[in-house]
Each structure stands twice: as C-alpha cells, then as structure tokens.
C-alpha cells in the first residue's frame, strides 16, 4: 500500500437528484480525515478542492441532466487523479456525487494500462449505477457511471481516459446492492457484472462475500475502492441523498474495510455521496472517516 496519500475535494452535486453532496469534502475534513490518516504513518497532502461549473439544476435533455457540466467535472477529476498516480501517490477523491467515479476510475484504468497492472474495482453502494439515458427514470448521471465506464453512455463521457470501454465489467465487484431499476437490472445481467447484493450478504455473510470479491488478486493488482456512503444502512449513515434501508451494519462495514486493508493492495479510493445537508451533527461524515481509517489499518489488535 502506498504511504503517500493525496486528498482531492470534488465539491459538486452535478449528477445527483438532491442538493448537498457538494459539501461532502468539507464535512470529511471537519471529521479530521487528514490528521487521522497521518496518525497511521501516512504522508497526507490535501490538494484542496477542484473548481468546476456550478449546478444549473435543470431538467434532463435526451435522458441526461447537466451532461456538459458532468463531463467538465469528470475531466477535472480524471486529470487530478491521474497526476497523483503518476507521481506515485494514492489519490483519495472526496465527493461529491458518484458520477465522479467515472473520472476517477477512468484515470486509474489509464494508469494501470500504462503501468502494466491488473485492476480490481470494489464498488460499495446501495445502487448498481448501471443506468443509461434510455433506462433512467430520472436522468441523474450519478446513476450511470459504471455503465459509462463499461462503454454504455454518451461519447463525451465514455472517452474520458482515452480508451473505450475504460474497463472490463469482469474487473468490478459490486457489494451491498439493494436498489436496481427494472431496465438497469436486465443490462447488469446481460454484461455479467459480479454483484453481491444484500440478499447474498444476508445468506452468506460479509466475510464470505469479501473473500470472493478479493479473490485472485496478486502483487501486480491495483485495487480501487469506490465507496458510496449510501452503501451503509441509513440508521448509521443518514447523511446521503438516496437512503435505502437494509444496508450493511456498522460491524459488517468494518469487516468489509478491514478485509480490504488486510490485502495490502489498496491503491486508490473514492468517498462519494456524503450529504451534510441531510445529516445529523456530521454523524455520517464521522462514520465514513472511521471506516476509511479501517481501510488504512485501524484494528482492535495487532493481527498476523
């Protein structure tokens, strides 16, 4: 695991259906993310916030809301994440809504192509985010980034990162899914996305789920985690725009993060959809930072 970490704020809710995710980066800073990571022996640079177009809050056009602005934000994110990886640093993208996962992961995929590395993506989320403009009920692009990364989307988005598709669906493991739109469900099935939904976790447990999600990685694997805070049950994380009941408990989420940390392969991270406007006394940001700390090795005991 890289010991040099860069925090990149992306304060926008451009792809979301609710306002407020633009305040997410500052909420995580208020919850002391940087100093906490420094306490684990990491060199942390806070790069501040990217500056992109404001949210015009318009209805969809041809099935997309704010397409031009979403493209601009994702290009900014791509360039920032790619720069940190090229400098041998681990980028932590602080969102912002999850449409930005497109820019982040397309940069990671580009870096892996150039470095000759394999890529594994863990998508921790209540939603599959595999909609297209023809399937979406809302036009909100935060429901489309995985589809765009796999080549299903508008030319302006799928070409960010320089290769179409940016990733192979077989590189993705989705965990915690419990809300998929009807048309999206069919497309997820057709492309063969590996999804561990909440029913699977209920039946098999988080440990077995994570063992499968992390299987077959080796020393040449770059592990990227895209953590949508609505992955968590809203009882412990109310500060998100799209709360879906029945998510992982605090202990299940901790086990998930600790098993990722145990691999020693984490090389880039997104933390998305934190919405302080819907939170209670920054509770969700503090839970998110606590879980991120576990990604970087916090544990009750020294483990072999």
TrEMBL record:
This protein's UniProt keywords: Arginine metabolism, Hydrolase, Manganese, Metal-binding
Family the entry assigns: Belongs to the arginase family.
Chain segments annotated as coiled-coil in the UniProt record: none
Cofactor binding annotation: Binds 2 manganese ions per subunit.
InterPro entries, sorted: Arginase, Ureohydrolase, Ureohydrolase_dom_sf, Ureohydrolase_Mn_BS
UniProt pathway: Nitrogen metabolism; urea cycle; L-ornithine and urea from L-arginine: step 1/1
Top EC class of this enzyme: hydrolase
Keyword Manganese assigned: yes
One Pfam family named in its UniProt record: Arginase
NCBIfam families (UniProt xref): rocF_arginase
Gene: rocF
GO molecular function: arginase activity
Protein name: Arginase
Cofactor(s) recorded in Swiss-Prot or TrEMBL: Mn(2+)
Catalytic activity: L-arginine + H2O = urea + L-ornithine
EC number: 3.5.3.1
